[in-house]
Each structure stands twice: as C-alpha cells, then as structure tokens.
Amino acid sequence: MKKRIILSLLVLALVFATGSAFAQGKGILNFGLSGNPDTLDPHKTSGTLTFQVLKSFYDTLIEPDTKGNLVPALAESWTASADSKTWTFKLRKDVVFHNGQKFSAKDVKATFERIKAKETASPKASEFAVIANIATPDDYTVVFTLSSAYTPLLASLASGWGAILPAELIAAGHNFASEPVGTGPFKFEKWVRDNKITMARNDNYWMKGLPKLLAVEFNIIPERAVQVQGLLSGAIEAVEFVDPEDLPVFEGNNKVVIKKELSSLIMVMGINHSRAPLDDLRVRQAISYAIDKQTVMDVAYGGGKVGHTFMDTGNAYYTDFPYYSYNPEKAKALLKEAGVGNKEFTIAVPQNYALHVKAAELYQQMLEKVGMNVKLQLVDWSTWLSSVYSGGNYDLTVTGHTGKLDPDGTLAGYGGGKYVKWMNAPVLEKIKKAVTISDFAERKKLYTEVLDTMAKELPHFYLGTSYRYGATRSNVVDFRMTPNIDTFDFRWTELK
Amino acid sequence: MDLVRFFAKRFLRLLLTVFIISTLIFFVIRIIPGDPALIIAGVDATAEDIQIIREKLGTDRSLPMQYLGWLYSILRFDFGNSMISGEPVTKLIFERFPLTLTLALMGIAIGILVAIPLGVMSAVKRWSLWDYFGLVFSQAGMAIPSFWLGMVLLLLFAVKIPIFPLFGSESFAHYILPALSLGFGRAAVILRLARASMVEELSKEYVITARAKGLTERMVKYKHALKNALLPVITITGIELGYMLGGAIIIEQVFSLPGLGRLFLFGIYQRDFTLIQGGVVFVAIVFSMINFLADILYSVVNPKIRVE
C-alpha cells in the first residue's frame, strides 16, 4: 500500500516536472508568436498580432477566405436594398458561445452597440458610425440601416474587430480583455502574459468536423534566433513568419517547410508635402527615378513584386502604372532643375522594424548617389506614431501599409492630407464617392483613376509588395493564412 | 531608542525618495514624444476615435490635473489600470514578481557563491594561480555581454545538448541557464570588489596588531579582516540585487521569460503611463528596502555604523 502511494506520488511529480502531460499529446500545435497581445478584447485594440490570436476565439458575421473574398460565417447570407442603405443578414441557427449560450440576433445587436458606445472607446468605432439602426425582426435576422450607402462596411464586419460577443456577458460587463468568450473554433484556456496562451478545441464549433487540432499553444518567443531554433528542433511547429535573413538556415532541411507567398503590404517611403522642396513634383520624381526598386525589395525585404502606386500589387484593385522606372541620370537632371542643391533630408525610420531600417539605408545610399544629402533618423514606434505619423515632423519616412479587405481601408482620406500632407481635391472626392458604390467594376474604375493620379503625383515613393515567408514543421498540414488581413487560421490544420 | 530613530529616519527617507522619483517619472514620460492613445488607435483610426480614447485614458486633461489625480490615487495605494491592456497595474506587477525574484535571488546566489570565496582567496594568495584565475574570470565576466552569454548557453545546452528547455517558464529547469547568465556578470563585479576590499583590509594596522597579539593567521584573515572586507561587498550586492529585481530585460528576452523587465520595457515602448509610473514606484520601493536591509546587515556586522 505504502509503495503504491509513493509510486503514484512519483508519477505525479514526473507529470509536474515535464510540464503538463496534456501538452505532450498529439494534436496540440505549438506555435511561436513573437509578441504578447495587448488585450484579448477585440473591440479595444488595433494590433495585427492581437487579431492573429483573437481569430481563434471569435467569429465574425462574414469572413475573408484565403483569397480575400468575403464569405458567410455567422451570417449564412445577406442582401442589400437597392439604395444600399439597408442590409439584412440571415444568421446561422446552430452556433453556440463557449459559455454554452446560443448565438442569436440579440448578440449581434449588442456587439455593434458595444463597439459604437463611447465608453468602449473602440479604435474602430468610426468604421461602424454609418450604422444608424440595428433591428432584429426575429431571432436569426439582423437588419442594419445605414445613414448613407457605405460598401466598406462589409469589410469591417469581416475584420477581427467585428467579432461577435455574447449579449449577456456584454450586459454583465464581462472582462473580455483577459477572458475571451466567443463562438470561435478554439476556447480560451489560459494566458500567462509574455509567456503562453493556451486554447482548446471548441467541440461545438459550427463548422462540422472542425477544428481538427485538439489544442493550440501560443508560445510567446520574442527572440528571433530562439524561434528559429525551436522550429529546427521541433519544439515549435509553426511561426507567423520567418525573417528573410534566416531563410538560409532552413535550406536543405526537410523537417521545416517554408511557404512563400505575396503579402498584402504596401511598402512605401512617405514624402512630407508640407516641407519644401518635397512639394515640388520634380523632386519626388527624382526620388522615384533614383531608387532601384527591385534591389531594395530583394535586399531589404527578401523579395517581392515591385509596384508603382498605393495598392498592394496582388490586390484586385491594383493596376500597374510604371511611370518612373529606375533612371539615376534623369534623377540628377530633375534635382538640378528643381534647384535642390545640398539641402539636407532626413529619413525617419521606426527602429523596431529591422527590414524598414535596412530599406532606409539602401534608400539613403541610392539618393546620395544622385546628389541628395540624406540622413537617417531611427525612432521608436511610439515616437514614430506621434511625431512622424500624427505630428508630420519628418521629411521622408519608411513604412509598410498593411493589407485591407476593402480598398477604402487603404485609401480613405488621401488627397486631404494624411501623414504625407498631400492635397488633391479630385482624388479625395473620388475616394469618398467610391464607398457609395457596390458594383465592383464601377468601383474599380474610380479607384483606377485615383491610383493613376497617385502613381503620377507620388504622395509616397512606391516600392511594391513583399513576400512573406511562413514556416511550419513538415508534419503540419493545412496551416492557412489569410494574406489580406495577415492572419492565420488553425481550423483546418492537422498534425501528421 | 537609537534603533527606533534609525528606522524612522530610514523610513522617511524611503518615502521621500519614492515621492521624488515618482514625480520625476510622471513628467519625464509625458515630455518625451509618444501617446498611449495612438498606440491603441493604430494607424487607421480617425481623429475622433483617438480623442475618445484620450478622454477615456484621461490623457486629455492638463498635466497638473493628471498629476494631482495620480498623487491622490497612489496615496490610497491605487496604482490604476494599465492604459494599454486595462488590467490593474498591481496585478500585472505581482504576476511577474515571483519569477523576477527567483531569478534575481538565484543570480545573486550564484554570484556570491563564486565571487566571495574566489575573491578572498585571490586577495589572500595574491599573484598565485588562484588570483590569476580570478582576474581572468572577472575580466571575462565584465566584458561578456549577458545576452551573448545567454544565447551561447541556450545554443549549447538547449539545442546542441538538449538538457534544458529552449523557452517557457513552467519548471525549475527553465531558470538555471538564465540564472547562470545573470550570475556570471554579477560574480565578476563582486569578485573584483571582494578582492580589492580584502587586500585593503589585510594591509591595515589592526591586522598587524592582531598578528602581533599572536592570533593565528586563520583568525586574523577570516575573522577580523574578512568581516570588515565584507562591508562594501554587502552594499554592492544589495545594489546589484536591486537592479535585478527591476527585471533583467535582456535575459528575459533571450530566454522568453515573463519577468518584470519585459513588462516595463513594453510599458515604455507603448507609453503605458500608468504602468510605467506604477513600475517605477515599485522598483523604487524595492530598491530602498534592499538598501535598508543592507544597512541593517551592515550594522549587524559592524555596530559602529548605526551610531553614526
């Protein structure tokens, strides 16, 4: 008897010593995440990394597929009135929240009222401002009445910040920030901040037979080299992306699969039009002529598809306008004509983005080659947001604009200033008009005009869209990415 | 009576230090560029969205108003909620503190266990093989950056010879490599000081007197001289410990450990004013308390100090 107690104690000790026995089983994906989410409340954040995690806890009415098309999710179907001002969503009837409550129209109503409420202070509130009224004629029908036609609303509903929360918990003031409750494929288990987020399969998920994994563990590993070693050793089975510089490490390794796909980033160098002589088109043209885009793309960003206007090159709305291809001689002549002389320009770069820093160094060299006097200034992300992006205290700045489900997400406000301080009334008007149109061809016609003007006028210098390199162990099957929102999807993923 | 006055004086000094430091940090983080509302809002938010977030955070109020509000709440021991995550600052700090404390104590223990015997031996047997080893060790310890050492240890003992885990913090095994990387640098500093201080003591007149009295060499060195030589070592060890209790950012980063260092670092990156303020007050209190403890230890070793 005594022996048996000792034995079971030993076994218990062993279980504790090896972490949890649960974590050793099959069907549990160990994921390497580079940072800690800000919060787990989908309505109080704007961080890409945060939404990558939230995707597994919550669902939206509609969602993007891997090609960026909007497909049904919690809403089975939807229709718009002829004037595009009334949207009717038919909801699924077989959806249950993680706390066991049935999903119905009241949850949709409560969710969007929460996002719009001032107390929530949602950074995305204005995307839903156009919703004037939410009616629930029956338990599985929701009718949005808009104050004016607004096509991009569909994209907002399909984005992470359109996540549906249970009405009862909203009313009870539940703390979603640390205990997410949604309808998503995985249930929240535990979050040790800056260390690990654990989630387990939602057995009642509305997509039959999904998700396939038992659980996902997000291991928060800030150090790139450790992520790489984790992949090599098998301690982690997938990561969000691999730095292009680390790619050679995986060459010839048949245990790690690198997946290369075009991202939806628009890599640019913002040009501050309020600072002379950058308001002179000739100077902006000279910058464009001076830079060898493909070289910067390859050396700094690990390759990609060069672009010439303000849209990701893989986007359905993208059109190529190669007005100013690499020509240093032309750049020199234009600079001389504009009388730029030895004036000093500063490129401000957020230092936490190593790839942008590398690109900035290349830009500096290339611009100096055509006679410009260029300095680099590294700033931290907060300073960049407040001084550069919001404050306009910069000459040139290197950044990447993330992909959007709707072109308005990329273009809204341009022509009316934005951080490049570029004024162009016709462009501003066209962008405003485009949101009222729902027909793709008609919208595309307007956006093509806008993008053509931007390609000619150069509010930014346009580099193009880089590749992103995803990495998984070879036993990971069907780990999907939705490039348009830079988010991964574990629903179909399996471990072989 | 003396003792009571001594404690009271120290305690008042602690309060004053914390007050001055917290006031300084309050204004410094607001003077440097950056705005927590912009971090929450991201690049796509409208000006109205940003303004609403500022109102919610209270950063739209004037600086004196914000300062008074903050003073009022810390007097009630309320450090507020993190501006970014909305969680109570005290919760965030105390979630991390056990890890940081464990790591710091292990690091300092390794430091002391290596440094004091080695330092004293070096001083006693000057220019011996021991001494040269000690010198090389302390040179290396001070020159090698801890992130490099951490990385090398990790690659050696978690990748090449996988006896330790690569990341995580669930078990004791997770702490050994980071504690070693931390302790190595501390050991170097303490060793240097222990040696110098022991050498100095050994050259003092009381040592000659003690020897003249006919005390054994053992008594002279390890009872009389060592006791005095340890005084500066205690101070420095206390300061080192204080630093480590504020978090070891680089080590936490390399070993993916959720300690205070990363909490505060991200607080600064994200301009999480309430978190930084709470963090600084916390570290100031911990630091003052350690100094206080070091002083008590000091007065135990040498009661003359207390009277002064």
Notable features of this structure?
heterodimer, A: 496 residues, alpha+beta, D-Maltodextrin-Binding Protein, domain 2, Dipeptide-binding Protein, domain 1, Dipeptide-binding Protein, domain 3, 3 domains, twelve-stranded mixed β-sheet, four-stranded antiparallel β-sheet, 30% helix, B: 308 residues, mainly alpha
Short recap of the structure:
Chain A has 496 residues and is α+β, with helices and mostly antiparallel strands. Chain A has 15 helices and 24 strands.
General description of the model:
The complex is a heterodimer of chains A (496) and B (308). With 496 residues, chain A is α+β, with helices and mostly antiparallel strands. Chain A has 3 domains: 2-57 and 184-237 and 475-495, 3-Layer(aba) Sandwich (D-Maltodextrin-Binding Protein, domain 2), CATH 3.40.190.10; 62-171, Dipeptide-binding Protein, domain 1; 266-468, Dipeptide-binding Protein, domain 3 (Roll), CATH 3.10.105. Helices cover 30% and strands 25% of the residues of chain A. Chain A is built from 15 helices and 24 strands. In chain A, a hairpin with a 5-residue loop joins strand 2 and strand 3 (70-72). In chain A, helix 14 (425-434) packs antiparallel against helix 15. The longest helix of chain A has 18 residues, at 440-457. The radius of gyration of chain A is 25 Å and the shape is globular. Chain B has a domain at 91-291: MetI-like (MetI-like fold). Chain B contains 14 helices and no strands. Chain B starts with a helix and ends with a helix. At the A-B interface, helix 6 and helix 12 of A face helix 2, helix 3, helix 5, helix 7 and helix 12 of B.
